[in-house]
Amino acid sequence: MTTADPVSDHAPVAATAADVYRPQADTYLLIEALRRLPVTGRRVLDVCTGAGPVAAASAELGARSVVAIDTCPRAVATAAALRPTGPAWTCVQATVADFAPAAPFELVTCNPPYVPAPGPGIDCPSPAGPTQAWDAGPDGREVLDALCARATALVEPGGSLLLVQSLLADPAKTAMCLRDDHFGVTEVLRRRIPFGPVLRSRRSWLVDCGLIGPDQWTETLCVLLARRETSEGPR
Asked: Which sequence ranges are marked TM in the entry (predicted)?
């Protein structure tokens, strides 16, 4: 993860508390992919919204309604403070596993935690900040697996899921899980970026685990677009 362009160049974001994930390169890559999709008139859910820039971008692109969820109460308050004009705007504190919408959405976006993280008792310092916004277990898939498991409950038939993750968290597994649930999956964007402070702080552990090479100082982000089939008969 690394710091990228000013937020104002992409979507409005309210002032954020120290424990709220601020938009970074993955956020902007997801927004770039979102701008290529038909958003006007759609009901949108933004999962792991953080400070709310992806949800705000959906509103800017003409969404009919936007629901933003996050596990962090200050993130929910930050996103709620945006209050963009136009669509119905709702912010909810919830996990991916617990959120129970009245109906699935036409478009779901997600920038989940996906950074592999060591277990308790392992000496692997992390820079100060909202670690719950990036740490995702030893394989980086704690939230990704939960999202895949809930995809059919969140995305209506014919709707789409747009998510960003690192190659460190196995996007091929994400695609396989979604295809097993009758989604067509394509990679729509990919970008390599220098390690930010989080990955630099645990680089030795990542090398020891075989997740990166000894000379690796960059990670690759990708955006996956998963479209749910309208007919889901047996394969």
From this structure: none
